[in-house]
Amino acid sequence: MLYILKSLLALFIPLATSIGVDIDGIIDFGPKWNFKYNVQAEKLQHDFQMKSHNATRSNIVSVEEVAITTRANVPVTQMNENPFEKAQMFNKPHTVRDDKQINEFALHVYKQSLKVFDLIKKKVDPNVRDKVDFIARSYDEKFRNFVEDTLDQTIKTRLGTQKVVLNTIDTSNRLMRRLVNFLIGELNKEGVLRNQMNVANVLEKEVNREMALEYRHICAKFGICRTVNGFNNFMVDIFTILLKGDDKNIKQGSDAITEILKVQDFSKIMGKGTQEKFRQKIGEAEKWDTKMTRAMFMIMKNLFALKNQPLKVMMHGTEHIESTVVLLEIIDEFDKVLPPNEENLLEWNDITNSLNQWQEGKRDDVLEIIQSVIGHIKNNGIESMNEKTLENMKDKFNLLFG
Using an 8 Å Cβ cutoff, are 268 and 382 in contact? Predict the structure, then answer.
């Protein structure tokens, strides 16, 4: 366990603050995909005012500055046919630049996202359309730069293609949401939303619809079938809530996890010897101090939250990266069998609400709450796996603990 902890510390701690949550400051999509988008609110506000107050000036936006130049009633999807470089796909380690399927997919996401802005323009007041143009141009520039920055990244691992594809969707979605949220904020400041209460709902619905469409698209094209707000998000919520606590609650939460894990029967996904070693490692984790435990909670949170980010290799050899790849594959299997259906969503909501109440001091049954988490993973997840998947899981856990 300590070996895995050290590996994960080296791999994931640099990613802990790589994705912000606000429009202010730098949006950073990770050290391996090292492109940072400057979207400081002050600059956006200045540009916004220039666009709004000087819309007729030809020197506000030039062809050299962006790939598309639009007006309030002109579609934003007028663009070059092939803005991203394409090449042939190889069945061996290769760069994103040389992967035809991924390049075509990035182009598809780009075009579909610009269509979202067209749809938004049709549904909002004409006085707002120039502002939609502004965020459309911002998206155009930033997503192009993101794609350009990924072209020389190498796909090496078994999860390589999946990670790039899902990360492309995640990146596009984050950009759209942040730009749309900024637009809503600006409209609210100007008092526009008071007269158009449906504008914010229209914007959010179109962004959500686009992301859902892309998930269906990659299921059909790549066989990568995932949904929004699934099991990974649930686990991110669990570790986020645990990390809110002081040292006392960190200790109580950790004790609850180790107490339950060391007596669980995981024979369906672990061989006898593997399960014995797993329990030994859990016993070692019981001796960790609060600082080490908090670090592990942070690592686990990022492992779920950033699982689609490219891996950053920081040491020689392949053993560390191999362990992390295996962990990501295990997480991926649980994500497949625990979809965000009505039953799971209700249970996830109940569990996170209970954990929040414990963290706030409104209840003291953290052991029972963690038992609900583990029980849910076993009963709804492991029990849903077919025989082939269960055998593969045994092999993966054996690689980690065998």
Answer: yes
How far apart (Å, rounded) are the C-alpha atoms in residues 203 and 125?
12
Q: What is the reported pLDDT for 80?
A: 37
- Quick one: 63 exposed, middle or buried, by C-beta within 10 A (0-12, 13-18, 19+)? exposed
Q: Looking at residue 96, what is its pLDDT?
A: 82
Flag whether the pTM goes above 0.90: no
User: What is the three-class DSSP state of 358?
Assistant: helix
The β-bridge partners of 95 are 154
Give the burial string for 111-137 (b: 16+ CB within 10 Å, else e). Answer: eebbebbbebbeebeeebbbbbbbbbb
277 φ, ψ to 5°?
A: -70, -35
Question: Which residue ranges make up each domain of the chain?
Answer: 2-9+229-401, 32-222
Q: Is 311 exposed, middle or buried (0-12, 13-18, 19+ CB in 10 A)?
A: buried
Q: Which of 234, 258, 276, 235 is nearest to 397 (CA)?
A: 276
DSSP percent split of the chain into helix, strand, coil, nearest 5: 65, 0, 30
C-alpha to C-alpha distance for 45 and 30, rounded to whole angstroms: 26
Residue numbers in the chain where pLDDT is lower than 50: 1-4, 6-91, 313-317
- In 3D space, the residue among 315, 298, 314, 283 whose CA is nearest the CA of residue 1 turns out to be 283
Q: pLDDT digit string (tens) for 165-177?
A: 888 888 898 888 8
Distances, alpha carbon 328 to alpha carbons 50, 217, 303, in Å: 46, 22, 8
220 within 8 A of 332, measured Cβ to Cβ: no
H runs (alpha helix) in 54-190: 100-123, 129-150, 160-189
CA distance 333 to 124: 42
